[in-house]
Amino acid sequence: MDLVLFGMQGSGKGTQSQRIAEHCGLQIFETGAELRRLGSDGSDLGIKVKGIIESGRLVPTEVVMEIIADFLHKLPAGKSALFDGIPRSDDQKKLFDELMLKEGRSFKGLLIELSEPEAVKRLTTRRMCPACKTIYPAAYTAETCEKDGSTLITRQDDTPDAIRVRLDTFLEKTVPVLEAYKTDGKMLIVNGEKSIDEVTVDIQEVLKADFQWA
């Protein structure tokens, strides 16, 4: 069983994906990371991806599906995947569902639910380590990264206008995907407005029927 993780910006999806992967033994698929990896590996698909990126074009959904298929084919036998950030729109969902069916892989969705006001509050108060890119919520009061000691900064794209654009895109493009998976009975939901550790506990509870938490 694979897992597809959803959450509005600010929901803590990145933090929780790492915890889920660690405790459930899942291999994370994150589109940006896979694009960077393929862009430097010299394979036929990597050369295609590198050419698209260097031209400044967006990677077409069809190519993203090729990247997912490549990722799945390289998974160790019996290993499950955690998809973070895909599918984000109806057209991606259609192709993703077709690919998963073709590959014979079943999956559940997990939504970390968050209200718009809380998302805006979190995004405008969080900070980032410029070196390791770790994101720190407002509750983290130190001025430096706990991993490498770098002075924390505000992300350049965490301005009110940029945040509004990202949230509107989520509401317009991704919410229909969530509703479709809910209708199909494939969506698990947790309240993302709790503390990070409380959300992790709730995730463990909703996943226990399908995933082994260790």
Description:
With 214 residues, this protein is of the alpha/beta class. It has a single domain, classed as P-loop containing nucleotide triphosphate hydrolases (Rossmann fold). The protein is 49% helix and 15% strand. It has eight helices and seven strands, in the order βαβαααβαβαββαβα. It has helices at residues 13-24, 31-38, 44-55, 61-73, 90-102, 116-125, 160-183, 196-207, and strands at residues 2-7, 26-30, 80-84, 107-113, 127-128, 135-136, 187-191. The strands form two sheets. The chain has a five-stranded parallel β-sheet with strand order 2-3-1-4-7, with helices on both faces. Strand 5 and strand 6 form a beta hairpin. The longest helix is centred in the last third of the chain and has 24 residues, at 160-183. The two termini are 16 Å apart. The model has no long low-confidence stretch (mean pLDDT 92).
